[in-house]
Amino acid sequence: VSRQLKEEARRGFAGLEEPLAGLLAMLEGSGDWKGKGHSLGYCITTELQLWMKEHPAAQQSGIKLKKLQARVLRILAQCPANLLDPLISIYQLHTADRNYLLGHVSHLYHRGDYKEAAVLSIKLKLQPDQDVEKMCTPLLLQDKINLVEDYVGDYPELQSKLLQILDTWCEPGFNIRDITSQYQGLSRYKPEKFNRKMLSKLVFRLLDRFNADPALCPNVVNQRHLRTLNYLFYKRFVEKTMTQENWTDHVQSTVGENRWLQGHLMQLLIRYCDLNTAAGWAQRCNLPKEMLPYGVADELQKLQEQERVEEAAKADRYEERKKEDYYQLPIPRANIHFLQTWEETLRCWEKVLRPGQVVGIDMEWRPSFGMVGKPRVSLLQIALQDEVFLLDLPRLLEQAVTEAEKEKLPHFIQRLYSDAAITKLGYGMSGDLSSLAATWSALKDTDKQAQGVVDLLTVDKQKVDVVSPEQSDEDRGFRQPEKGLSLLVQHVLGKPLDKTEQLSNWEKRPLREEQILYAASDAYCLLEIYEKLCKDPASFGLSSDLTGSLVGKPSIKPRAKKQLNKQEVLSPSVQQCEGHQKETSCPPAPISPKEFSVVCDNMLQGLGRYLRCLGVDVQMLENEDDHRKAAEIARQEGRVILTSGLPYQTLRSQVAEGRCFSVNSSEKAKEQAVQVLKHFNVQVSLADIFSRCQ
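The structure assignment produced for this chain is given below.
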């Protein structure tokens, strides 16, 4: 039918004296082409476009063409997107009088057809002769942000103008209603989305997309810095989870030489601290007297001696607390090497790249606090059994002049990660490797080539637990609960990591002694964890073949942002279940879903819903329920327990043999359901599906 239509259309074109006028007459007389998709009008139009290329003599010019262009412009405002380009091409609208085209677009705009006016402007490349604020404002009010981005997409000057306009709307004294009130009757009008928060997000998105200079948007950038300042004060004085040194570094970096931010800093200091502290910052920022709040100037002379005494006492207390409460490096300070020259790194590489070597790897970068772009690695830590190497990446990159020198460090990192004979230990390796890729584009495929890696985050997923000495509330003080690697170190080695340096400014040189010790500890503790787990995996609820199951090739793509594991490992309980199944001489007798009743632990609610859709009798624990409730329900109602990870060890001892089954928590619900049905030989028929659904 399509071929016949095309042939018929071509015969029609050839038979018409003016095929261009004939197409317009057809479109003007029919509404078929106005719908979405490939209508009859669309098929004929695109066929004429091809026919015109083969028959250039049929093309019109002069007065006749101008009249046709005037007619087609009236159609363009109504036609679907797929007809725009063919009609513009057939009627040579790019050659039409530019003022005439601008006038037509202006007519559409004043008629309220803002989207159509913008789309036609983009197609005809009219943007340089238009007012970007006038064209984009109604589109923003209609939440057509993608169209706004397309409108300025090819014009850096318009991008800058748009960013400056959006920034002026974010001025503290600017009333956004002055803008929105002009468009009250706008269709699909969404004024609730048109606020400073939305505009701020949009500005940073456009800055990132267009790689524009943030200096174009001082109001938005200042507001972001002010939010950062408020966040830093909250972390330091409310949560109390940031050290004075880190807090000072970040505040100084955030405020810089900006007098507006320095004024807000003074107000925050008076609110959270005291006049002495405010006076110290006033001196540091060299603020003029007219900017100083009342009472601050009088404190400037008293401050210096008082601060020296307090900091010395605090440092002593801090060092004593760290030794008592936190993990301590078991190697001498002399064995921590801070490498800033190529000669030093070559000696490091010789030791690290030896076959059979086991190395702990970690990385540090400056916290971004929500700013645009991915973080670049500032420090690479590599721990061996008796020493730790800290590679100063920014300094090493500065020294690399030739292309060969610039390739040295990425080449070493690639060799290290791709060598299966070297065991690499890490925690959340996906995050580290993606930051490396952002630092050097040459390392973007390192995760795909990596071999012999052990991501200890996998151990966390296997619910590693151990009875550790309980701490009283008095011992803990007001310390935040441990998490991540620090919690794993506490479980396995007895004391958590001291994470107070985690939010350090890792780009600032020289590094403080506390930063060096923290960085070395983060890498070295991985060696101690791995050694202890390998020696006695059973006491941590892990399988005996820990080394074989953990060492492998990292997965190319992590499943979720927060799960940065590098390889999939079956939980030990699943391995036990599978081993038990292999030992069974014959599978259980087949049963129907109606005969199969289970109770799902609270981390398996997705599996429970899936099984219920297949006709299985399912009960599920609520999120707040204790795991042991599953055993009570199983005993009372004769149900099989479905669980995962560490709870399996506890629950299987409370029910009869074979009545507790552990699934792989890393799989999706569908794969888990297949595993359960196969293990218990449950045969699902079409009649069973949705049989329990109302």
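Interim note for the steering committee: The chain has four domains: 3-166, 220-303, 335-464+483-548, 593-680. The longest strand covers residues 358-364.
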